[in-house]
Amino acid sequence: MKLICSRFLFWILFVFVVCQLNAQETQKLYLSGTGNDQTVQWQFYCTEGRNSGKWTTIPVPSNWELQGFGKYNYGFNKDANRGKEKGLYKYDFKVPAAWKGKKINIVFEGSMTDTEVKINGKSAGPVHQGSYYAFRYDISDLLKYGATNRLEATVAKHSENESVNQAERRGDFWIFGGIFRPVYLEALPEQHIERVALDAKANGAFKANVWVANKGANGVSAQIYTLDGQKVGAPFTSRLNVQDTIIQIATTVASPQLWTSETPNLYRVEVSLLQNGKLVHTVSKRFGFRTIEVKERDGVYVNGVKVKFKGVNRHSFWPTSGRTMSKKLSILDVNIIKDMNMNAVRMSHYPPDDHFLDVCDSLGLFVLDELAGWHGNYDTPTGTRLAKQLIAHDENHPSVIFWINGNEGGHNYDLDAVFDAHDIQGRPVIHAWEDFRGFDTQHYREFDYGIGNYMHGHSIVMPTEFLHGMYDGGHGAGLEDYWEKMWQYPLSAGGFLWDFADAGVVRTDKNGELDTDGNHAADGIVGSYREKEGSFFTIKEVWSPVYFAYREITPSFDGTFELENRYHFTNLNQCVFTWKLAKVADPSGKKAAVEKTGNTTAPAIKPLEKGMLKLSLPDDWLQYDFLYVTVTDPHKRELFTWSWPISKPKQIAEGIIATDGPGTVNISEKDSLYNVSSNGIQLVFNKRTGVLQQVQNEKGVLPLSNGPIVEQGMNNFAGFSHRFDGKNLVIESAFDKKNSYNTMQWTVYPSGWVKLKVTYFPGAYFTDFAGVNFSFPEKEIKSVQWMGCGPYRVWKNRMKGNNFGLWQKAYNNTSTGEPPIVYPEFKGYHSNLYWCKLITTGQSITVVAPQEDVFLRLFTPRFGDDTYKNMTPVFPSGDISFMQGISGIGTKTQKTETTGPMGMKNIYYDYEKEPKRAKELVLFFDFSGR
């Protein structure tokens, strides 16, 4: 018996090696296009709404609303007529005569939702219910081979099955109709492989379950290859008995290259069906060797390494095509996600396109794949069918490491067993927003409750949604506080931000308006067309796998930085480190910018360990303003560019400010005013309050006035007088501990430069902000140039993501996430000001800040009327402010102060108990207009 089996296996191997080029592969014929960038016109009839009641054409795949048909519906919409909206499709196609005798399936990758299919007037099978799942019908007996056939499909936007509507059509997202993913025919030999399910472990153990249509086949053989075609090991086989419809084959690969999000190593396996010495069908699958293990009350392990997920939720969405995507857009989205240094993505709230998972496989992202359910779930028969379709469609992607059975209460517990029974890899199953099977995935926990609760619980903590974004709130705001706790806490497995992109849809019924249904869909880190908001860069820095410990650059700096390697699988010596020194131009533009660059040896720091980076800087490094270090990963993707100030604001100010001048400073008093002139500058001060009321030069009146006004403090300046200090005029208030404890001093120099010094006490122990502001008519501003951190605005709880440098941007009135979109936004707080030039028509005002940690506030940003109060930040009065403390911003679900310590108000000492704690702000003004 052993001899016979050995000879049989030898014969199978011989046939596999000699005859594999003659094997029959599955043939595919697209009836539709492949995505929104390549479509095919089908005949179309819409039953309700726009352009209904007539036959015309429509591109397939597409969502018909975006093509001018039917009615737009957001998930919360209670339109009573929505169940009547259907689309009728017709398409004529030819099938090769050579396909006769094969099994021909018609495959729909996705259709919303109830879909009835007919071929040549005859039903292809039962109506398919469920929008996001690939389904197929055997239409071999319905086709005319070598002749024209007619496909008819009737698609109902809303299902006859109310559980489908509860799971898919009542969600917090746009509800579309139509055949939105590709449709194609697949031709298989009469004896063929129906399905291959793979399981490839990190130790090299490989097995596959192979389903076959068996009419006499007697063997299955397989060969593993690298993606460049090199064989890995020998072919491996299994004998197939005549009654078998499923068989398992297995082998072991020595020391395979493992798949992770950092090392997305892929292989390919060819599985072949043999009959009577002939290869009758071959199926090729890509896969990766990796092991996912959940250790109870511990964490998630990938290939034996405990990992933390830096993730985001992603809808399949594009403004002009709805849920109809393309391979090109999948590549775009995965690259943007990777560019934020994320390692994971959650499919919200339904399975994605196959090509999206292909890209996650090849570029490296962990994926949480989700069965639809949003506060409602499929009934058990429907959910069982759809879960099986989901598993069969996505099971071989190494990127898919978790299944999610519904979202936020949309869980059918009967379906957990379906995943357990039908997934060869036994992936973990979780319920989003629930503490289930050892995973606490609760959404939108406040920092104190969330972090505190997590630290006192026993489940693995992995919020599948946290820091719910809206417009410019959330995402980057609060992330550093959350992440540092998540990183340090042993039971944390990371988390997933909500969400990736604003879901703004082009309204073909409203002249192309980009509609996010108010604040419902404006939740993205990037815009609808993937425009990068400020939070994008904050996330990029906070989630960088290379972590720089905080340090200041002083003259004693020796080029050394302490690093932490927050990779899980990559040594930092695989990255590239470069540095740059920069001296920026001054406000006058007379001093040119200078740069010097260099490389450095990447430090050998193992994953999850700490070490030192040593830069070999030139001897003159102290002559520069800023130091930059850029780190590029092994795949040549920039992790981030960090920057540090070398020159302090006082040094820069000394090189800019000119106090001496050829003329004299003159002052006269009239009524309640001081009228001052110096070197062509005319200044008017209020004698009672010290406020600058007007300033003009030879070109005319400048628009800065009515300041300084102390914010959230007492403007109790009093007792003003003037005196000369040499050639300089000094106007100052008198100090009185009880009534005028805040003081103001103006100094006017013969050069025309003006100095302001304000000593003030914030008005309370907790304050939203601290500083002074001025009036500046918004219509007068054209642009701003500044030295400091930029180019994006900041919030108290979103300081990271910018760089030191010289920046300039034109005025815009962008409200983040609302059209018209211009990024970076002009208005808001800008950190670490050295100097700024407020540019008006024809001239400018230059303000120099010689102190560290001064913020420039440019006007009050515009926020939509439907902005949640949780998110709306507070701003000082006035228009242009110079601040020493600023406010934070909340999220859609949290107030500013509940996003963590950075979101709390500023805290200052009581001046009566700590009189030396008064804050001092010094500014210099150049009103010459240059």
Report Rg. Answer: 33 Å
- Tell me the CATH architecture of one domain: Alpha-Beta Barrel
Q: Which sequence of strands runs across the widest sheet?
A: 49-50-51-52-63-59-58-55-56
CATH 4th-level superfamily of one domain = Glycosidases
Low-confidence stretches: 1-23
Distance between the termini: 99 Å
CATH class wording of one domain: Alpha Beta
The counted number of beta strands is 63
Mean pLDDT: 93
What is the beta-strand fraction?
Answer: 35-45%
Quaternary status: single chain
Subunit structure: Monomer.
GO cellular component, one term: beta-galactosidase complex
Protein name: beta-galactosidase
Keywords: Calcium, Glycosidase, Hydrolase, Signal
Short description, anyone?
It is an enzyme of class 3 (hydrolase). The chain has 930 residues and is mainly beta. The protein has 10 helices and 63 strands.
Description:
There is one protein chain. This protein has 930 residues and is mainly β. Among the domains are: 2-21 and 191-287, Immunoglobulin-like (Sandwich), CATH 2.60.40; 31-188, Galactose-binding domain-like (Jelly Rolls, Sandwich), CATH 2.60.120.260; 309-542, TIM Barrel (Alpha-Beta Barrel); 546-655, Sandwich (Immunoglobulin-like). The chain is built from 10 helices and 63 strands. Strands 49-50-51-52-63-59-58-55-56 form a 9-stranded antiparallel sheet. It has a 6-stranded antiparallel sheet with strand order 3-2-5-11-8-9, with no helix packed on it. A hairpin with a 3-residue loop joins strand 22 and strand 23 (299-302). The chain starts with a helix and ends with a strand. The model is unreliable at 1-23 (pLDDT under 50).
